[in-house]
Amino acid sequence: MANQKGKPRTPKAKLITALHCSDKYRTVYRYEKDAYRDLIRRYYGVASSKDMSPRQLVNLLDYFNGKTAAPTRMIETGAGAGNVTAMISPKLKAKILALSKLIRWREHDGFARWMGARYKGGRIKTAKQAAETIEALKAMFERQMADEHGADWKGKTYDNDGINTYIRLHC
Questions:
Q1: Helix locations, 77-156, DSSP H
Q2: Measuring CA to CA, which residue among 131, 147, 146 is closest to residue 99?
Q3: How far apart, in whole angstroms, are the C-alpha atoms of residue 148 and residue 116?
Q4: 112 lies in a domain?
């Protein structure tokens, strides 16, 4: 089947058409665009079905056709998402800053030096880099706490509210 210009339609375009022709889309989301956009943003991290990968489209189509009870959360970055890279959000920046303040650095500018060694210019640009940095900081903090307070450090209460919050959220 060809598009209006006479060119053959791509497989991705066919998936989007199938998605918009499904019963669930036509009965629920066709008139509730905000709910539809919220659904694809929450499960796939995109604002439009045009930004979804074929794998994500098939997953959503399975949900719309009743093959699955709920869509699978599939947020992709980099080449798997059609070369769309998610940029770092203010929420991730805040989490990185909070974690960096929990760590006792050897130098007064230890965090800046550590970031400079990891990233060009010492700046995080993508959500993937942010996630990697968060995991590295968490591991560094947990090693530091275990070294200073023993293996059972997670079961204790501290004067530092940041440490108590970390334990409540991550342990």
A1: 90-102, 110-118, 127-149
A2: 131
A3: 26
A4: yes
- Number of domains the chain is built from: 2
Out of 30, 60, 81, a domain closes at: 81
Same domain, 70 and 32: yes
Q: What pTM does this model have?
A: 0.52
Question: Please, what is the end-to-end C-alpha distance for the chain in angstroms?
Answer: 54
C-alpha of 21 from chain center: 29
Tell me, yes or no, whether 77 and 109 share the same domain: no
Helix/strand/coil percent split, the chain, to 5: 65, 5, 35
Using one digit for the tens of pLDDT, what is the confidence trace for 22-40? 888 888 888 888 888 888 8
β-bridge partners, 78: 84
Q: Number of C-alpha atoms within 13 angstroms, CB side, residue 40?
A: 24
Say which residue the tokens 């060809």 belong to: 2
Average pLDDT, the chain: 84
pLDDT at 78 over 70: no
pLDDT tens by residue, 97-126: 999 999 999 999 999 999 999 888 788 888
